[in-house]
Amino acid sequence: MSIVFDNSYARDLPGAYVAWRPTQAPAPQMLFLNRALAEELGFDAAAVDGAAGAALFSGNALPDGAEPLAQAYAGHQFGGFSPQLGDGRALLVGEVVDRHGQRRDIAFKGSGRTPFSRGGDGKAAVGPMLREALISEAMHALGIPTTRALAVVATGEPVQREVALPGAVLTRVAASHLRVGTFQYFAARGDIDGLRRLADYAIARHDPALADAPDRPLALLRAVAERQARLIARWMNVGFIHGVMNTDNMTISGETIDYGPCAFLEAYDPATVFSSIDQGGRYAYGNQPLIARWNLARLAEALLPLMADANDEAAVKQAVAQVTTVIDDFPAWYAQALLQGQRAKLGLQQADDGDAALAEDFLSLLQQHAVDFTLAWRRLADAAAGDANPLRALFAEAAAVNPWQQRWQARAERDGGDAAQRAARMRLVNPWIIPRNHRVEEALAAASTQLDLKPFDTLLAALRQPYDEDPARSAYTQPAPAQLTAGYRTFCGT
Ligand code: AMP
Ligand code: MG
Question: Which ligand lies nearest to the CA atom of residue 250 in the structure?
Fold first, then answer.
């Protein structure tokens, strides 16, 4: 298999990684292969399948031109700073330029210990790696920027968790793996040259239009903040809870990364938390915009040494004022992106001053009556098409939604246009199928206990067409029993 690598990270950022090789897998077996993505990357899909693919994506047979390395980064985890985290169980294999001319990282997760492993075993289990594949593919199908899953290979070796689990390696594709934590790593070491090289690299890779901007670090901060504002708004509008928004899990590219304890909302409640380790609810659904801003403030701090000499008090003061403007602008950028998405979900094409309140009041109603977030929006499209009964049926007291619905109806009529077209537009932005927690668990249990991939494959096929109302797939649209959701817990990095 010949892959044309062009490894800019290895070339341009010495000091930001350790060259390292994956651990050999005793009996690799392909569990999941993303053929469409393989083709997008310019790979010969036949050559990456079967035994050859399993050898390739387990790390046993590295292709020519690969320069595997463990990336260094720091990060705030649940608010506490670690100056050195780094790829403890991941490796960047190399970069390719895809068929659209986009540079993409190809990386392994679960490929063994590295110098950054600390106490960990460097391994990953089948369940969590398939989970990342499933949810990241679902996010992609929903049109949300995300890293992608190219392959999951069972290693044939058990990994020891609370019980022994089958091991796996995930091959992940990303616009880059640069994180807020990558900048924090250099800033924490006081390595200003390294920090400058990193900023130049990030700009060249993600914001080439800023190459000649006068205040490049500030412009980079602004670009990252704008991308994150749009990304978090997209999450909120589909009910996605990332679960572990540490600064090492926030990208510079604006892609969603690191699907550990993530999960989707069922009944709407901003306080929803599923992650077992998030006991304070720091990363609850409704906190995500606030946390994004907090993380961006950490990026701003890391960039300050590029903007002012630490000994020049006046210059530092000015730089702090400049980055503060960006951090203070973030809530407005986020609100704007959120509202734009909400207008589309409401089927509206014109802007009206009352739209934010209209959307907010809908959400309050859902919260008050513990109504499923995804189904409520989807059923609103039926109401647009003339049948409000499915929407009403989601409420224990059907009449509870009537006053709001009349308000929305009046607003929709003022917006103008054809009702059928409005309903059709709404069905393109309000998904019918999301990864329901009980469905995900069911598919992963079959895969990891019996290596039975059938439930995984059928669920994945459904998640890849989230907007198509195919009655054959209606089982995937149903929320889990409320009791199950109330006790549902997700886990990090297992
Ligand atoms: P995550 O929560 O997956 O974003 O990981 C946070 C940090 O813990 C990163 O530095 C990971 O490389 C490291 N890590 C997570 N799981 C393991 C493991 N099994 N072995 C070694 N390092 C790990
Ligand atoms: Mg991480």
Answer: 2
